[in-house]
Amino acid sequence: TWKWVVGPMFLYLCERLVRFWRSQQKVVITKVVIHPFKTIELQMMKKGFKMEVGQYIFVKCPAVSKLEWHPFTLTSAPEEDYFSIHVRIVGDWTEGLFNACGCDKQEFQDAWKLPKIAVDGPFGTASEDVFRYETVMLVGAGIGVTPFASVLKSVWYKYCHDATNLKLKKIYFYWLCRDTHAFEWFADLLQSLEAQMQERNNAEFLSYNIYLTGWDESQATHFVMHHEEEKDVITGLKQKTLYGRPNWENEFKTIAGQHPGSRIGVFLCGPEGLADTLNKQSISNSEADPRGVHFIFNKENF
User: Fold this and answer.
1) What is its main location (predicted)?
2) 200 and 76 part of one domain
């Protein structure tokens, strides 16, 4: 038995040593941004840090807990000179991080007062393959929208510089959330991307649909009254917010009809139930003919 145990244990110890060494490297918090609904953005720098779109890191803040490591998806783009995460304050550890960064104080905080942060990573995810397809469907549910912040930022930077070598030609983006106000930082990103594409006369590059799955009667009345306005009353985007859940069968059939003979990447960051639905639709709407349309499903679950 020991012959079978020694090998894996040796590899495990090596992996722990590498993680310990990487976690000891100095990380500098360059900026802390407070977003609405108790969401903070940490912008950080670390020597030799290289990332791809959609990857994630493990974060430890000794001022909050000396042992706890928590995973966070990177919301920055590889083209930026820093890496960032968005943290929603929903528990004891995130509350401690919020206070340690001085976000509970009104006055401006000096950089040297910010807590020390240990970072391990980045680690790969399915979202890294986005730029290998000409057409992609991005589906984010709630906080699962964060990996696509990195993707869309990277697309924005590529279009700012030179998009001629970009294989990706069309993005269908779906965002399902109960309360868009909790992710206003992401709506701001969509507004920037929307304006950028219009300036470059390529507004058709990004098609996005935002589905609000939770609202009350007073909100519904308010939405109806302002439905005719040029911009959406919730997000400020030209694309109006939809209510309920998408009809995935219709969406897949429509996209398949618009891109015959294509390999379409379907990327999800969301719950397991939604993953099962999208996987079944990807299979049922893919043609048996190798020259036909094929949906390639990729998922991240939380």
Assistant:
1) membrane
2) no
